């Protein structure tokens, strides 16, 4: 906002004139008038440059005020004098002037660019969201049934407790650790409903910042794009351990083990429980055992991010095996969960943070502090999605139906993965080995393409993806596999 204030001093000529008064009577008023018009021209230029006059010559006074007086003691006013005529320009500087424009989110920004593209063959393989063979969003049938049952029950919309829906917290811990797990029976798990995986991770990060002031988190390189944001925002220091080997497009297991060994004792090691994002590369069961050995030897704390339980392999138990193995060793474990993918509850923001402790008393104290952190952050979590999860997992018939649908979704992604591999292998005559596509698991494939090659994918082929080379196979159909293979082959060989 800006305003301009004029102060004009005028003079009245005497009634009678003499020869020596001509200068006084005519010349001085002339220069005064000329000064006035000069100020008028300067003001007009200023108004034009600051958008106060439109191209049609209309004056916009909404953010401009004109008055014929001089404001005093205004720190935002600047005075320019022209003889006895002064122009005062006042600018109300925003208190938020120092805030810079934030960069667009590297994942969500992909969808925005995709929507702006009108090409008929365009593909959005950036965001990890499941699509049907027709590339349409999918709402699980079991979710529709649970929704209908909730509507028929006429549940109220009262606030939940800070820790969330009790029925949800019970079934989610049972689902991850196993209902018969001793840590469940001994009440050694502190479970708090969080705002999906992101919010649950953020609660854990705040707990680390508050009670482990010298704690450091080790994150895989590469990792999900939001992990670093979460720990940065919570002011928790982090570093990376080697994970991806670009030479083999596989796991750098030796580098991973060496970096975990070298980390300061008592560090938090962030692990992807299954279907590593973005690479889709998971350790083998034997490698998981070695990882657990090293973490236990170094007195580290394993910190699992579980975003795809049941969605990666189609089996809830198989996808939770890594977490359960660490717990079975008697280790204290942190585990964040999300139901965005396996139940398609993306917008419901349903997840949980679980802390497995060595005693029930420690678990109670941890839970109390998680609640204390959540209270000023968001007060209490949403209820609708939590009721859906509790009802599906708690009902034998609905639970069976959910398992069947998860197998169907996981199966479709596996079929797309195989079709893409077949298309790449048959079309590329260079002899390149594309078998890494089959070795990866889950909804993502890490193509190994660099930024320039990814730019070629988008600019030439209208395939939208993150610049690290990750593509979401959940957003791909069998019918589009050959087109995608052409794009990848061209970009790999010609896009650098």
TrEMBL record:
Its EC number is 2.6.1.1. It holds the Pfam family Aminotran_1_2. GO terms for molecular function: L-aspartate:2-oxoglutarate aminotransferase activity; pyridoxal phosphate binding. The keyword Cell division does not apply. The chain crosses the membrane at residues 26-48. It comes from the Eukaryota. SUPFAM superfamilies: PLP-dependent transferases (SSF53383). Keywords: Aminotransferase, Membrane, Pyridoxal phosphate, Transferase, Transmembrane, Transmembrane helix. Amino acid aminotransferase important for the metabolism of amino acids and Krebs-cycle related organic acids. No activity with D-Asp or D-Ala as amino donors. In plants, it is involved in nitrogen metabolism and in aspects of carbon and energy metabolism. NCBIfam families: PRK09257.1 (NF006719). Belongs to the class-I pyridoxal-phosphate-dependent aminotransferase family. This is Aspartate aminotransferase. It comes from Gossypium raimondii (Peruvian cotton). The lineage of its organism: Eukaryota, Viridiplantae, Streptophyta, Embryophyta, Tracheophyta.
